[in-house]
């Protein structure tokens, strides 16, 4: 029996992503704070459709907005690890990465009563230590890499990579990788950034992005018996009015195409069961 799954995931970064880029003045911080408004709108929409989703929240955001995070839990949604700060692990020295990872786990434990099952790195750039930390702290899956578009796989660690030599594959772990894609992330499509050395134009037409995302799901339906797609949203991005209408249209279109909506934790459990069968 064909089974095609849509995972709605939300990186609840609020101001932390701006702060990690050195954008500490009031306007970018307020831009991130809008994410709390957006989160409320998203939770109302998901409740109206009976959909559970996965939320990845930096520790600094949990500590800043505990009531907003508690509302996510009250809606039946998964809370995943998204760092303590929003600094990418690949940019952190080993001791600081380990300290921040553990600190974020404790924030999630205080919020939910248990440690996280899943990890997603800030800005999707992990170090060669990150997967070991995730395993050490009891995570069962990672969602930071892009080795497939519609099928999970077991993550590797210890690859040997050089620009002038063949790739040497490392060890396959028991950590399920639930792959993501920049093309299925709202941020590069919609967010405008002007930094000292970078211009990110964003501000795309929402209907054009919607058309692409529905087409990706349709392609998966045509080419796989069992498949999943992870859509990634940021409440301060998708929470704007015309984009909320786009999200509503996406959910309804996918439902009309037979999509099952699962959390990433549910995906990793189903993938493990299929792998063991």
TrEMBL record:
GO molecular function terms noted in the UniProt entry: hydrolase activity, acting on carbon-nitrogen (but not peptide) bonds
Gene Ontology terms describing biological process: carbohydrate metabolic process
NodB homology domain: residues covered: 26-277
InterPro entries: Glyco_hydro/deAcase_b/a-brl, NODB_dom, PgdA-like
PANTHER family named among the record's database cross-references: POLYSACCHARIDE DEACETYLASE FAMILY PROTEIN (AFU_ORTHOLOGUE AFUA_6G05030)
Membership in a protein family: Belongs to the polysaccharide deacetylase family.
Role played: Is involved in generating a small heat-stable compound (Nod), an acylated oligomer of N-acetylglucosamine, that stimulates mitosis in various plant protoplasts.
Protein name (Swiss-Prot/TrEMBL): Chitooligosaccharide deacetylase
UniProt organism field: Roseomonas indoligenes
Origin organism lineage: Bacteria, Pseudomonadati, Pseudomonadota, Alphaproteobacteria, Acetobacterales
